[in-house]
Design brief:
Elements lengths: L1 H29 L4 H149 L1 H19 L5 E5 L9 E7 L8 E7 L3 H17 L13 H45 L9 E4 L3 H8 L4 H8 L2 E4 L1 H89 L1
Parallel strand pairs: 3-4, 4-5
Antiparallel strand pairs: 1-2, 2-3
Helix pairs in contact: 1-2, 3-8, 4-5
Function: Involved in DNA recombination.
InterPro entries: DNA_recombination_RmuC (IPR003798)
Organism: Lyticum sinuosum
């Protein structure tokens, strides 16, 4: 292959030289003056061609060497390929042996693992069975305990319910007895009087009110209770009359009418009404409701009027019988013993003001009466404090006078004591003088006696 390349190179070089010669001849024909220069250039060209040829020889030699090297490399490649081929076969054999060994090991490991898993499964099954038996036992025990506790609780609750039913039965009997009491006008009045006395006894002292008291000495009319108030003539008390009234019949009829009204407001439309007649039926029911409500409203007005008349009549009776100044205050209290009845009375428009204005009677329920009595009690305390203060002042005046007398007596006593002190001082001086004289006399007599004995 390299020889063919060099042959082509020589061929092209020869053609180049030939073309150069032909070109030179043509140039010589045209211009002979330049012949020498051309000859020189041809010489230079030949020299360069010679160098090129030498270089080509060198290149050819090098190519031959390269060719030999390539042959050596090709042989080495074949040798290496053979070695690689043999190595691949050897490696394939080793890989096959390794694969077989791995498969054997994996089978052995899998069998061993399966055996261990089976053993663990059996152990876990035994543990689970033990746990299940333990849980069942504890669950059974807990369930029995819970059931026992539940039955005990239910039994206690049933016993409580049974006792409650007994108490309810007793309460129902008591309510029946109370109803029987309240249906009788006389017993109803006694019950109101008992409740009024209970409130009075809780707030006031027994000496501060009278029971079944004749306010007017000239009359036989007796008020249920009269509270003593100071401020009468000649230091006498005046009395605040309180009388209990219980309009049970009128109130009961009014409440029953309210219940009937509430029941009529809950009328349900019949489910068997056809859809076609629904509007017409609804209109009929609405008209019926309006008629029933109008009828109930008329009854309400009637019963409220009866309650109003009862209250006015009772207030008039209290005013005429018990408001007798100067024996009593210029107003009285009408006590209604039930808060609901009192509340219903308050809802009557203008009745409170009218009764106070025309009959000078104040309507009071249990709560209102308690507030009034507490106010009176505070007034009694203030008055008692004022009375005791005046007595204390009188006592202090007496003490002041006694203290002044005591001061005069102390002054006189001090004067007497001063005089006595002076007398004592004078007596003390005289005593000293006498003692001095006695001492001198004693010495003189002693000398005399001594002189006499000497003689």
């Amino acid at each position: 292959m390299h020889q063919i390349i060099f042959q082509y190179l020589y061929f092209f070089i020869g053609i180049s030289i030939l073309l150069g010669i032909i070109l030179l001849f043509k140039i010589l024909k045209k211009n002979s003056i330049l012949l020498q220069e051309i000859s020189y250039k041809i010489l230079i060209f030949e020299q360069e061609n010679q160098k090129i040829i030498e270089n080509l020889d060198i290149i050819l030699t090098q190519n031959n060497k390269n060719y030999e090297s390539l042959m050596i490399i090709d042989q080495a490649h074949k040798y290496i390929s053979d070695i690689i081929h043999h190595s691949n076969q050897h490696n394939d054999n080793k890989l096959e042996n390794i694969r077989k060994a791995i498969d054997y090991k994996l089978d052995h490991i899998q069998n061993d693992t399966n055996n261990k898993i089976e053993i663990m499964r059996q152990v876990i099954d035994e543990k689970l069975e033990t746990i299940r038996l333990t849980v069942d036992e504890k669950l059974q025990t807990t369930l029995e305990k819970r059931l026992k506790d539940s039955f005990d609780l239910v039994s206690r609750r049933l016993e409580i319910v049974h006792r409650g039913l007994g108490e309810m039965q007793s309460l129902a009997n008591n309510v029946g007895d109370l109803k029987n009491i309240l249906t009788n006008v006389k017993t109803r009045g006694i019950w109101g009087e008992v409740q009024l006395e209970s409130i009075l006894s809780q707030i006031l002292l027994p000496v501060q009110y009278e029971k079944n008291f004749a306010i007017n000495p000239k009359s036989t009319e007796r008020v249920e209770f009269a509270i003593k108030l100071p401020g009468g003539e000649n230091g006498m008390n005046i009395f605040l009359p309180i009388d209990a009234k219980f309009p049970m019949s009128d109130y009961e009829r009014l409440i029953n009418n309210h219940i009937e009204e509430n029941n009529n407001q809950q009328i349900n439309i019949n489910n068997n009404i056809n859809k076609e007649n629904f509007i017409e039926s609804e209109n009929i029911i609405n008209h019926s409701k309006i008629y029933i409500n109008d009828k109930i409203d008329k009854k309400n007005v009637k019963y409220i009027k009866n309650l109003e008349n009862f209250i006015k009549k009772s207030a008039k009776s209290i005013s005429e019988k018990y408001i007798i100044p100067p024996y009593s205050t210029d107003f009285a209290i009408m006590f209604i013993p039930v808060e609901s009845v009192y509340s219903e009375a308050l809802q009557i428009p203008g009745i409170i003001d009218e009764i106070q204005r025309e009959y000078r009677v104040v309507i009071a329920g249990p709560t209102t009466l308690s507030a009034i009595l507490n106010s009176l009690r505070m007034g009694f305390r203030t008055l008692a404090i004022a009375e005791k203060s005046s007595k204390i002042w009188e006592i202090l005046e007496i003490i002041k006078k006694d203290f002044n007398n005591f001061s005069v007596l102390l002054s006189k006593t001090k004067l007497k004591l001063d005089q006595a002190s002076e007398a004592i001082s004078l007596a003390e001086k005289r005593s000293i003088a006498i003692e001095s004289r006695l001492t001198k006399f004693s010495r003189h007599e002693t000398r005399k006696i001594s002189n006499t004995e000497d003689k």
